Amino acid sequence: MILFDQVLTAAQMRAAEDVLIAAGTSVSALMEHAGRGAAEWVWRVAAGRTVTVLCGPGNNGGDGYVIARVLAERGLPVQVVAPLPPATEAAQQACRRWGGVPVADAAGAVLVDCLFGTGLTRALSPELSQMLQRLAAAHPFRIAIDLPSGIDSDTGQALGDGMPDYQLTVALGGWKRAHWLMPAGASMGERRLVEIGIDAVSGAGRLARRPELTAPRPDAHKYSRGLLAVVGGAMPGASLLAARAAMRGGAGYVRLLAAERPEGVPDDLVVLTGPAADALADERIAAVLAGSGLERGTDAAERLRTALASDHPLVLDADALHLLTPAALQGRDAPLALTPHAGEMAALCRAFAVVAEGKIAQAQGLAAAANAVVIAKGADTIIAGPAGELVFTKPATSWLSVAGTGDVLAGLVASRLANGSAPLAAAEEGLWLHATAARLAGSALLPDTLIAALPAAWEQAA
Ligand SMILES: NC(=O)C1=CN([C@@H]2O[C@H](COP(=O)(O)OP(=O)(O)OC[C@H]3O[C@@H](n4cnc5c(N)ncnc54)[C@H](OP(=O)(O)O)[C@@H]3O)[C@@H](O)[C@H]2O)[C@@H](O)CC1
Ligand SMILES: [K+]
After folding, report:
1. H-run or E-run covering 316
2. Among candidates 90, 116, 223, 250, which has minimal Cα distance to 178?
3. Per UniProt, where does (6S)-NADPHX bind (predicted)?
4. Which residues surround ligand 2, an ion (CB under 5 A)?
5. What pLDDT does 174 receive?
6. Domains along the chain with CATH numbers
C-alpha cells in the first residue's frame, strides 16, 4: 500500500529502504526512481531557465547526479558543483551516467541542493557552509532535495549557522520528522513528496488527517451532542473564550462554571456560579475543560482537584498544567488530554519525572507517564498518545501566534471530546477546526475573529 502520510526517522527510512532492497530492488534503482521524481519538480520550477545542482558525497548527492542527467537530457542548461567526490557505489554510478564535468562555482536561476540528506552526521565545515550560502545567494529559486543540507532529519534542528531559505523541499520516499518540525520547517518553503514504493513502517508517525466532521444526526438534541462543563477561574476572560469556542465545536450544550458571573457573557452561554463540585456531579456531563484562566493559587488547585475527582473525560490547559501532579491522577479512569505549549511542557516533564530531549520524546514520555493524549502546541504542533501514537500537523497560519488562540483550541478539543470523539481524534479534529478557521479569518486575526470563522470552517469539513 502506498502511504503519503507516514513520517519517519532516518533509521526508519533506512529500514524501509532495506526491506525494498531485500525484496530485490537495488539502491541505484531507488535512486533513479527518486531522482526522476525530484527532477519533475525541478523541471516545472525551472521552466527552461539555468539550473545548478550541488552534489554531496552520499546518496543525496547521487540523487543530484540523476536530476542533472534527466534535466540535461531534456535540454535544460544544467551545471553541477561537487565539492566532494561521490563516495557510495550508487552515487558513483549515477555520476558516471551523468558523464559531465563539475564546475567550481556557478550562478543561475535555480539551485538544487543535494549536498546532504538523511545521512548528515555533523555540522557542515566552514568551507561547505560558505559554498552553500554563496550558491544560495547566486540563485533566486532554491530547491532542497529530501532535506535542506545541514538539518538534522530527526529533530529539525540546524546543525550549524547561516542555513539558506528554500522555496521548495522535495521529500524522497517518505516524510522525515524534520519536514514537520521547527526550526527546519520555517526554511523549507513548500513541501512535496516523491513516492518510491516505501511500505508502512512499524512505529512511524503520521501526518494529521482531514477529519470527517458532519452535521449533527437528524435525531440529535443538545445532550446527545454532548454537555461540556468549562471550569473557569480567577481570570474569567480566558475560560469565556474557551467556552465560546466550544459552543461552535460541535458540543450541544456548554456550561461555564465560574466563581462569579463574568462580564460580557453572551446570552446563549449558561453560567453556573454555585460550588463546582455540585455542578460537576451532573451525570449528563460528557466532558470537562479546566485550566484556561484558572490561575495557580489555592482556590485554583481546589477547583482542579474537583475537576479531576469528577472522573469525566477531561481536557487540561494553561494553569492546570502547572498544578497537575502524578498523585492527582491516581484513581482516574476517564480519558485525559493535555494541551501544553513549550513552557507548560517543561513544567509537566518536571512534575512527571520525564527525562527526555526534544519535543517529540517529551510529548511521548508525558503521554505514557500521564496516560494522556498530549497536544504539544507551537508552530509545529504534534500529538502524542499513550500507546505511542505520534501525529504531526502541517503548519497553520502564523497569525495564530497571538494571545487567546490557545484558549480557543482547548475549547474546541474539549467540545469534540464532549461530542463523543476519542481523545486522539478529538485532538486532531480540534486542531483541524482551529487551523481552518484561522486560515479563513485571514491576517491579523484575534480570538474573536477565529471563533467567528468556525461555522465557515465546518462548511469545509469532509
Ligand atoms: N532512503 C531511501 O529510500 C532513499 C534515499 N535516497 C537518498 O539518500 C539520502 C541518504 O543518503 P546517505 O545515507 O548516503 O546520506 P547523505 O545525506 O547523502 O550523506 C552522507 C554522506 O555525507 C557524509 N557526511 C555526513 N555529514 C557530513 C558533513 N557534515 N560534512 C561532510 N560529510 C558529511 C557521510 O560520510 P561520513 O563522513 O559521515 O562517514 C556520507 O558520506 C537520502 O537523503 C536521499 O536523498 C535516494 O537516493 C533513494 C532512496
Ligand atoms: K539536500
Report:
1. strand 314-316
2. 116
3. 59-63, 117-123, 146, 238, 293, 341, 407
4. 113, 145, 149
5. 96
6. 6-204 (3.40.50.10260), 227-459 (3.40.1190.20)
